[in-house]
Amino acid sequence: MRSNVKTIQVRNSELEQQPVIISPDLLEHLDDTEKDREFIAMESRTFLQDAWRKFKKNKLAMFGAGFLAVFVLIIIFGPMVSPWTYDGIDLSNMNKGPSMEHLFGTDALGRDVFVRVLYGGRISLTVGFVSALLNLIIGTLYGGTAAYIGGRADQIMMRFVDIVYSIPTMLYVLLITMVFGSSLGTVIAAIAISSWASMARIVRSQVLTLKEQEFTLAAQALGASGKRILVKYLLLNSVGPIIVTATLNVPTAVFSEAFLSFVGCGVAIPMASWGTLSSDALSNVSTYPYQLFFPVAAICLSMFALNFIGDGLSSAFDPRRNK
Question: What pLDDT shows up at residue 73?
């Protein structure tokens, strides 16, 4: 008669030849539901996917992004479908109030204010985004290189940054305008030259922190080149603060361009930015206040939207905020 007891040999360093006897009555089969009771399923997300998930939860940031997207589409396609042009003079319709024919009224030369505000948005937002892009490229490369090299070279490079940072933007504009003349390119160049220093400081501080981390030392030990370490390991791990700073530089550049155009150092006539429109309407503000209201409202709304987006990105890329 066979025994119901089975023997199982467990190989062990100490008990290699000693059998361990286990009775089948002590074993219990689990069904599938009990097997998966302690299984925790979690979606795998990258850093950017997690940042986008956090950004979508920020209602103000999503409102700012949606408003800015619609606003940009209107600015791009609005003048194309309008029967009026930004520089079309009609002396028979001077200083007309808002109506169905002219939604924002006309100015002192009979030009449609609505089309001029949209066209001015092209100029102002182009200055803002292009200046922020140049700041991103110059500041990231300069600050990252200075931090990675370190030593005396880092000190000399950052002293140059301090000199650039201490000179007012207006002085850059005046010098560039005297040499190259007043144009859209000179305004973009002046704003970019005067504002990349802040980006370089932020990138330098991030790279100095990451430079001493274990993954950087491991990459150096494996023989990775300095360029690869700087770009792939240091700058890519600093992408959060870089994106946030670049986004917040856009409204700063828009406001700087509006101020420069308002004081007469911006784009040349007949081009019209929001600052130029505000400056032209200032002389008639007591009689025709709508001519000043619409360009100023465009500046305020765009800056609110850009700042909401910047705040949302700041929260999304902050690893300390897990909500």
Answer: 93
Residue pLDDT, tens place only, 202-218 = 888 888 888 877 877 78
Mean pLDDT, residues 13-42: 57
Q: Can you tell me the distance from the alpha carbon of 267 to that of 273, in angstroms, rounded to the nearest whole number?
A: 7
Q: What digits encode the pLDDT tens for the residues 221-254?
A: 877 777 788 877 787 777 778 888 888 888 888 8
CATH class belonging to 50-316: mainly alpha
CA gap 81, 84 in Å, rounded: 9
Residue 315, both tokens: 């929260």
Rounded Cα distance between 182 and 173, Å, is 9
What is the predicted pLDDT for the residue at 19? 57
pTM above 0.85, yes or no: no
Three-state SS string over the chain comes to CCCCCEEECCCCCCCCCCCEEECHHHCCCCCHHHHCCCCCCCCCCCHHHHHHHHHHHCHHHHHHHHHHHHHHHHHHHHHHHCCCCCCCCCHHHCCCCCCCCCCCCECCCCCEHHHHHHHHHHHHHHHHHHHHHHHHHHHHHHHHHHHHHCHHHHHHHHHHHHHHHHCCHHHHHHHHHHHHCCCHHHHHHHHHHHHHHHHHHHHHHHHHHHHCCHHHHHHHHCCCCHHHHHHHHHHHHHHHHHHHHHHHHHHHHHHHHHHHHHCCCCCCCCCCCHHHHHHHHHCCCCCCCHHHHHHHHHHHHHHHHHHHHHHHHHHHCCCCCCC
Find, among 273, 313, 316, the residue nearest to 64 by Cα.
313
Q: Identify the residue whose tokens are 């209201």.
A: 293
Cβ neighbour number for residue 246 with a 10 Å cutoff? 21
Q: Are strands 20-22 and 6-8 parallel, antiparallel or unpaired?
A: antiparallel
